Amino acid sequence: MCHANWTTVAHDTFAPTLHADPDFMFLAIAVIGTTIAPWMQFFLQASVVDKGVRVENYVYQKWDVYIDRS
User: Fold this and answer.
1) What is the pLDDT of residues 13-47, one digit of tens each?
2) What b-and-e string marks burial along 15-32, b requiring 16 or more CB atoms within 10 Å of the CB?
3) pTM above 0.90, yes or no
4) Angstrom distance (rounded) from CA 62 to CA 57
5) What is the longest distance spanned by two Cα atoms in the chain?
6) 65 and 48 in contact (C-beta within 8 Å)?
7) Is the Cβ–Cβ distance between 53 and 45 less than 8 Å?
8) 2 and 8 Cβ atoms separated by less than 8 Å
9) What does each C-alpha distance from 33 to 6, 17, 28, 38, 48 come to in angstroms?
């Protein structure tokens, strides 16, 4: 419906243009902040502690995080 130029869309997806203006920076920080939420980092760490995972088993915990879709 918007008649997008798909060549431009594909190019800008893989080679984005960054701007130094405050509105762009605010939006970029907001997107990154909601993607990597601080509460999730604390939740994952608490999960590791609650499960009693030892350092040598961290690789299995990483796979648990990657695979878990709940």
Assistant:
1) 999 888 999 999 999 989 888 877 778 778 888 88
2) eeeeeeeeeeeeeeeeee
3) no
4) 9
5) 54
6) no
7) no
8) no
9) 28, 20, 8, 8, 23
